[in-house]
Amino acid sequence: MTPKHKTKTHSKFLSPKQITGAEALVKCLENNGVEYIFGLPGGSVIPIFDALVNSKIKLVLVRHEQGATHMADGYARATGKPGVVLVTSGPGATNTVTGIMTAHMDSVPMVVLTGQTISPMLGKDAFQEADIVGISMPAVKHSYLVKNTNDIPRILKEAFYITNTGRPGPVLIDLPKDMVAGPFTGSLDPKMDIPGYTVPAKGNQKDILKMAKMFNEAKKPLLLVGHGAVIAKAEDAVRAFVRKLKIPVTNTLLGKGVFPETDPLNLGMLGMHGTAYANKALINCDLICSVGSRWDDRINGNNAEFCVGAKKLHIDIDPAEMGKIVKPDASVVGDARLVLEELIKHVEPQDTRAWIEELAFYRTEFPLKYSNDHGLTAQKVIDELYQLTKGKATIVTDVGQHQMWAAQFCLTEHGRKWLSSGGAGTMGYGFPAAVGAQFGTPKELVVAIVGDGGFQMTMPELATVAVHKLPVKVIIINNRFLGMVRQWQELFFGNRLSGVDLEGSPDFVKLAEAYGIKGIRISKVEDVRSKLLEALDHNGPVLIDAEVIKEGNVFPMVPAGKSAHHIIIEPPTTQLEKPTGST
Amino acid sequence: MANKNNKKRDTHTISMLVANKPGVLVRVAMVFARRGYNIDALVVSPSVNPLYSRMTITAKGDPNTLDQIIKQAAKLIDMIHTEEHSDVDAIHRELALLKVKATPANKATIVKLAKKFRTHIVNENDKAIIIEQTGTTDELDAMEMLLKKHGITEMVRSGKLVMAKGKEST
To answer: Which of B28, B68, B77 to mutate to test the interface with A (most CBs of A within 10 A)?
Structure first.
């Protein structure tokens, strides 16, 4: 080695003591503000786990890598900071794919570090080798394969920047073992090199003025808030906008809490299982403005019949969302908060009283309701939980009927107090996501509402809860069915039940006790309140098995592929035709 | 079968400036494949800056889907610039190598044809003639049609290259 070469390698950033790639990696994670890593080790990542021994970063050992990704996701949604996952190569890496896709669909920031075989063995079918960069490619915002140890700090810096700016999304970093085990001689604070990445911020002024004009001409405007408004921290901006214009608001499943659901101007969730009055507003509005929603098919149903005659306005930070589903009459690409803060200056309050009254009428005519006459319903359990917590708790749901009932009855006061897998609809998400949320917000009351089906997909994480004595409360809405599919089979397939009976499930109270966790069973209407109170008062984790009636159905319901006109408010008495829409 | 006019209108030429890194081609191809869009031709070559590569993609299909594809591709972190080009705003060129069966009877005709189309005969013996042609897609299509009756045994086309006219960037 020539002296010239030597001076080149020894930059002023060189640490006094030789460190490994793994140590550099952990240092960079610390520098990026990481407080928790959710993961599970294996051969290729032992050097990284070794480097974590001396780090202030807390490691949460999971029982399955999918759990780690959902924990990181719940952590990210509850705090707004990226969740970090560390797993080994091969099956360790592939087990993260569902969690990565879940985060991607809902624009959640997450950095996934996967082990990889040593670089000379890449592509040679080495033990526990998987092409995770290839496998995960359609489900990540970006990904890296580290080919030089000294690139680690730059890649981490870029990953943390990319994952949580613009439209957030997961970033995967694949780390061949020799890259982390080898010596690191580079800079710990390098420059980023992502010339192709730009983040839209302020919207175009001309677009904003065009939008303002439409608002000023509308008689029956409706604001639709989605997850983008939560991500952009647009809560205050949305509230100020709505208060100034006195216009009704509806939210998507993930937009819950941006505008308080207890406010009379809030119509609650719209779409397939949204309130009848939110869906009536869709039919009758003459302007709908989406703030950070992507007109998902659960909302639109049938695009050709969606808000016919209404002006459609779209505010989103992702330019690819413009015209993807709905062709907007006016659109602004930009940060939801910044756009609304500008838009509000150019809109004038119109007389919306008649419009508000019309919707108030629908609210009294078609309220959300349930009956206690035929046994314990899921709605009763969820409603009672809401009455006891009144929007103070962070509610995390799994996917299925209980999720929709929770969306209907757990009114939400703020963004980040409602976490749910929306786009992906990932069963098994709720429980580990609640665990992650609890790690991220240790002072908050975190309640997971899950089904007996989804819970069993990720329930090994009970061990993680037990080890950390996390005070998370898990309510299993136990109807001994895969309820949402059973509901479809009942309504659309002549009640030919196929693959939905969950016989063989364990006794969940005993299961909790086997982990040393408090288990509580609720089976009677009159016990709901006292048992829930007992759970909420317990200083530690609680698993509640709520044995609800087996064949409850979620209403209202807009059949998939239909417009809001076809909303079913009461249980139908005749067989319905099979839905044409997606899933 | 779509008639020729329809085919032409549905053909799109997209130029992309991308980071010169492994895996970028896969990321771009996936944006097309996921939406069931077939790539007809693809040229990847170094750009004037060695950090970036130039991709020129020719694809057929529904313009709304293509619009979404371009927007999604533009979001790729490794994508520096992407642009769809029409015949009017850019120079389009393609290169073809055509191997034609040579017989004493047709050889003179082929040589004449090659001259007429301002192409080059780059290799010939008593069995086959290889013709090199550079031109627009239409010119290449026309030459192919004419040579077909003499028996084209092999054809390789480069795929389209485009460059924006004037000071516009490609």
So the answer is: B77
Q: B48: exposed, middle or buried (C-beta count within 10 Å: 0-12, 13-18, 19+)?
A: exposed
Residue B170 lies in a domain: no
B46 phi, psi to nearest 5 deg: -65, 150
Pick the residue of B31, B75, B83 with the most A CBs within 10 A to test the interface with A by mutation.
Answer: B75
ipTM computed for the complex: 0.90
Domain A12-184 has CATH 2.60.40.10: no
Q: Domain A205-365 is classified in which CATH homologous superfamily? A: TPP-binding domain (3.40.50.1220)
Q: Say how far apart CA B71 and CA A205 lie, in whole Å.
A: 22
Contact A33, A109 (CB under 8 A): no
pLDDT above 90 for A541:
yes
Q: What tokens were used for A540?
A: 């530690």
Q: What is the CATH number of domain A378-555?
A: 3.40.50.970
Buried b / exposed e across A444-462, counting CB within 10 Å, b at 16+?
bebbbbbbbbbbbbbbbbb
What's the average model confidence in pLDDT over A434-445?
Answer: 98
Q: Are A420 and A449 in contact (CB under 8 A)?
A: no
pLDDT tier for residue B11 given thresholds of 50, 70 and 90: confident
Last residue of a domain, one of B24, B58, B85: B85
Looking at the fold, whether B81 and B126 belong to one and the same domain comes out as: no
Residue B17 domain flag: yes
What's the DSSP call for residue A345? G
**Residue A394: pLDDT over 50:** yes
Task: Look at residue B54 and tell me if it is in a domain.
Answer: yes
Classify A400 in phi/psi space as left (phi over 0), alpha (psi -120 to 50) or beta.
left
**Collapsed DSSP state (helix, strand, coil) of residue A478:** strand
CB contact under 8 Å between A324 and B75, yes or no, is: no
Set of chain A residues whose Cβ sits within 8 Å of the Cβ of B67: 323
Instruction: Find the CB nearest A196 among B30, B34, B77.
Output: B77
